[in-house]
Design goal:
205 residues, alpha/beta, seven-stranded mixed β-sheet, binds guanosine-5'-triphosphate, binds zinc ion
Length: 205
């Protein structure tokens, strides 16, 4: 098993009281969590989000990206449905780590886009590995996901490792003047499906 389950606890949030399940990835020592709500082990497709850590967006309110807004919208959507899972994966900066992301942002401040900056630092555009998702979902008893994402490569990566993605649910939120180019580059170079409307389809409120 590449990840081991460690413990679970209650996690009250403004949206709902989730259960937080902690996992240790043995090869890297990284600590990951899954938030769950309701009965996710009944076999029916589960509304889910596989969210990659973004300290700047998720915790520090950065407007350079759309991560914080997507995290909030996903938790709200799960709360509204009363059932779902959110995998919070500690693969900061698409897998290059926080300090390398700061280096990449520095290059972006000088004119590079998000892909060029990674490449100039000697990294691939996206270094993430979703291999730990399967054992985490198996632990949760989740058989099939309705996955909230705009990234078809994420859907393919999960499908290729044997996770059933019954549906892709778009998550269009967090557009602002600071991340216009960033979102355009994701659409043009990374294949993200950004949609035309500046609203969150998982959270149409
Ligand atoms: N290297 C790098 N990583 C970034 C940058 N901006 C955001 N990230 C990281 O990108 C990850 C989120 O990936 P995104 O490409 O925004 O979105 P996604 O997860 O592929 O797709 P969605 O499911 O639609 O959100 C997080 O780990 C962020 O820390 C950047 O400019 N450079
Ligand atoms: Zn981000």
């Amino acid at each position: 098993m590449p990840v081991v389950f460690v413990a679970a606890c209650k996690l009250p949030t403004p949206f709902a009281e989730f259960t937080m399940h902690g996992f240790l990835e043995k090869a890297t020592g990284r600590e990951h969590v899954v938030l769950s709500l309701g009965d996710v082990a009944d076999g029916a497709p589960v509304l889910g989000r596989v969210h990659s850590e973004c300290l700047t967006g998720d915790a520090l309110f950065s407007q350079r990206c759309d991560c914080g807004s997507q995290l909030e919208a996903a938790m709200q959507a799960i709360a509204r449905e009363g059932r779902g899972v959110l995998l919070y994966l500690r693969q900061e900066g698409r897998g290059i780590g926080l300090l390398n992301k700061v280096r990449a942002y520095e290059l972006q401040d000088g004119g590079a886009d998000t892909v060029e900056a990674n490449e100039r630092l000697g990294f691939a555009a996206d270094q993430r590995d979703y291999g730990i998702c399967l054992p985490m979902l198996e632990h949760m008893g989740v058989k099939s996901l309705r996955l909230m994402t705009n990234n078809p490569r994420k859907v393919k990566a999960l499908t290729d490792m044997g996770i059933t993605v019954a549906e892709r649910v778009p998550l269009h939120t967090g557009h602002n003047p600071h991340n216009k180019l960033y979102l355009a580059t994701k659409a043009n170079k990374l294949g993200h499906m950004m949609g035309s409307q500046h609203q969150n389809e998982a959270d149409p409120a």
